[in-house]
Amino acid sequence: MKIKSEYKLREIAGEVIIVNQGTVGIDMTRIISLNDSARELYEHLVDKDFTLDDAAGVLVDIYDIPLLQAQRDAEVWIDALKKCGVIE
């Protein structure tokens, strides 16, 4: 998997969001907001090919949580970004 290159992180009014940069006619009614752990995953995995285990490893390293919990959390993050078309 890979985060599509046209998506970028931006901080607006204290919120961290993902924007589709450079797209004409983008629907701004649909904003993807990230919490701290989702932002960490994004920042560690952007511009890389990664797997579920790679994402889980990031969570284990940062938050010192059990691997099984990290895998579940990473799967939720991946599924959410796939639904939004951010991950290919």
Sheet with the most strands, sense and barrel status: 3 strands, antiparallel
Q: Helical region count?
A: 3
Proportion of residues in helical segments: 40-55%
CA radius of gyration is 13 Å
DSSP strand tally: 3
**Terminal-residue CA separation:** 6 Å
Order of helices and strands: EEEHHH
Pick out the low-confidence regions: none
The fraction of residues assigned to DSSP E strands is 15-25%
Overall, the morphology is globular
Task: Give a short overview.
The chain is α+β, with helices and mostly antiparallel strands. It contains three helices and three strands, in the order E-E-E-H-H-H. The protein has one domain.
Tell me what the structure shows.
With 88 residues, the chain is α+β, with helices and mostly antiparallel strands. The chain has one domain. It is 44% helix and 17% strand. Strands 1-2-3 form a 3-stranded antiparallel sheet. A hairpin with a 2-residue loop joins strand 1 (7-12) and strand 2. The mean pLDDT is 91.
Keywords:
88 residues, 3 helices, three-stranded antiparallel sheet, 3 strands, alpha+beta
